[in-house]
Amino acid sequence: MVDRDREWDFYLRLLSSSARDSNLANDPASDPSLLQAVKKLHEICKVEESEDLVARVYPQIYKLFQRSVASLSQSQTSNGLLLLAVLQFFLDFGEVVLHDADPSLTTFFRSCLSREFADPVVAEATLNFLSENKKKLLTSFPNLLPQFFPLLLKLIAWNGEKLEKPFQKVFPGLISPGSFLPLFPSLVDLPILVVALEKVERTSGSLIGSSIASIQKSAAPEMLLALMDEAYTGSTIGDGGGDSESEDSSAIDVADPLFLDLLKDENDGLAERHWGSPGMAAALQAAINTPQSYRLKEALNITPRLLDVYFAIGLRDMNDSLICALIPLLMSRNATIFPDKVFSHEVRKRLLEFMLAAFQLSPDFIALLKKPITDRLGEAYETPENTELALQLCWAIGEHGGGGDSHKDAARELFESLELLLYENLSSSRLGLRQDSSLSSNGATFRNSSQARLLCFVVTAIAKLATYHRELQPRARVSLSKVARSQISDVRVWSRARDYLGLMNEPAICLSVLGPSHGQVKNPGLVNWSEGGRKMIAHIPFYILGVQEGPPFRDFSFSEILPRK
User: Fold this and answer.
1) Cα separation, 7 vs 3, whole angstroms
2) Which residues pair with 362 in a beta bridge?
3) Phi first, then psi: what are they for 73, rounded to 5°?
4) Cβ atoms of 108 and 87 closer than 8 Å
5) How far apart are CA 45 and CA 47, in angstroms?
6) What is the largest CA-CA distance in the chain?
7) Are 259 and 280 in contact (CB under 8 A)?
8) Would you call 359 helix, strand, or coil by DSSP?
9) Per-position pLDDT tens, the chain of length 565
10) Is the dihedral of CA 336, 338, 339, 344 positive or negative?
11) Helix or strand run (H / E) with residue 513
12) 3-class DSSP assignment, residue 557
């Protein structure tokens, strides 16, 4: 006990004397003994559980925090560890001394971490601090982490996979109703953020100890000068001038709007990413033409894993309005992803899986989003990515009946979009007859195959919509008949159309095969496919069996047409 009292007096005097030392007063972090003093005093207060001791040491620690924050712009040493130790004291004993830690936490993020996120020691200590205090932070300060998610993404983008595990523990706290939508483009653009940070390091030196906010502010006069130069000389802002052949001429310009948005520290809402800007085009071209840095490679690996967590939390915790609002963002970003083959495949796969899962949970979304869906169907043949998106949308439209029985107008409009897509192919002979001279034979074959696959889904969606909404059946029969009689379509397409026409002549079987997979009324004659392996039926339309020729010659079991597990 006597030794602990001596320790207490020693470290308390150390804090007091540091305030009177002119050198330490202007740069407290330069004395490593102050960090040790704060930790020891904090430890003694926890062990003794004495409110009197907390009240005695609090004024000195609070003054130390204020001095450290004031010295950040001139300090040559890292203040992060010292401020984190002080913040831990505030969180543990704030109720005893009536100290609201929210302003202190905000100050740390805004003034300190924004300068020191690139320091691996401070970055790791920050993530450990947030992880250890996650429950208290989410309970008492629920808006803190969502507010500063851009800064924390910069931290993981720069420090990479070595900090991924502690970051994964903190990451769910970044997701809230206010950050859910803005967080999505920031996650998808994590590789672009790495490119931007590396550009800052090349042009402005080390990121440790320098505030990117000051670079962002200084970009305004640079943009003004560039606009004046454009007005007087006719050159454009994107021109590189005499240095156009330099190493960084193809990188993002600090005055580019995308650059400023990428490097922000705080969540300021959902902003449009300027993917069409010259800076973005130059950055993507540079990324393609130059070897990838190890940081960029790690960001390409981390991003899909973060998206897995993001989408899982979205489906579990977010309300329908936010999920519905996210789906058009997914559609728009499907074609604008960092141009790495493996990365773009992994990200697009997750985007489509989330979209289909959202439609499964709330089929009404299809009717609510009929405008962006029809727009994407109209862009189906522009790129392979658009084709795959349109294919998945066709499946969702058919599977969920265009939103269900209560959305007949939306279903009719979606049906008309599918008809248009189908007739466009029949009239223009897209498949098989028209060859694009710019494509190799392999490229043309792949294009024709993907378009045939899409049309198979379109035909299926038309048949399913007509099964859901019987008023569409006459139009569906006309559409499918035209495809079945067509000689310009791929055999897989007109064969499927013929099969569906045959199914429509068997209403009970058609409703069982093409009708809703859940919530279906048990009408007489409908098949319960889960019991198909144990039941027999005298007449199954032979076209379902595919390989059978002619009329059925025996009683078939449903197990013959059901997939085996």
Assistant:
1) 6
2) none
3) -70, -25
4) yes
5) 6
6) 103
7) no
8) helix
9) 557 778 888 988 888 887 777 666 677 888 889 999 999 999 999 998 889 999 999 999 999 999 999 988 888 889 999 999 999 999 999 999 999 999 999 999 999 999 999 999 999 999 999 999 999 999 999 999 999 999 999 999 999 999 999 999 999 999 999 999 999 999 999 999 998 898 888 887 777 766 665 555 554 444 444 433 444 444 443 444 334 334 444 444 545 666 677 788 888 877 766 666 666 777 777 777 788 899 999 999 999 999 999 999 999 999 999 999 999 999 999 988 998 999 999 999 999 999 999 999 999 999 999 999 999 999 888 888 999 999 999 999 999 988 888 899 999 999 999 999 888 877 654 444 444 445 555 666 666 777 788 888 999 999 999 988 989 999 999 999 988 887 665 788 888 888 888 888 887 778 877 877 665 545 544 555 555 555 444 444 444 444 445 454 555 555 555 555 5
10) negative
11) helix 507-514
12) strand
Rounded Cα distance between 201 and 215, Å, is 11
Q: Cite the DSSP H helix spans in 177-293.
A: 180-188, 190-204, 212-233, 257-262, 278-289
DSSP 109: I
What type of residue is 427? S
Amino acid at 461: A
Structure tokens of 126? Answer: 């920050």
Q: Report the residue count for the chain.
A: 565
Residue 388 CB contacts under 8 Å (≥ 6 apart), including other chains: 348, 352, 450
Q: How far apart are CA 106 and CA 145, in angstroms?
A: 10
Kindly state the tokens that stand for 272. 């449009």
What is the rounded distance in angstroms from the CA atom of residue 175 to the CA atom of residue 309? 10
Looking at residue 275, its amino acid is: W
Q: Which amino acid is located at 194 in the chain?
A: V
Question: How far apart are alpha carbons 242 and 501 in whole angstroms?
Answer: 68
Is the pTM above the cut of 0.85? no
* Phi–psi pair at 559, nearest 5 degrees: -60, -20
Structure tokens at 384: 């392979």
Beta bridge partners of 537: 556
- What are the two backbone dihedrals, phi and then psi, of residue 424, each rounded to the nearest 5 degrees? -60, -40
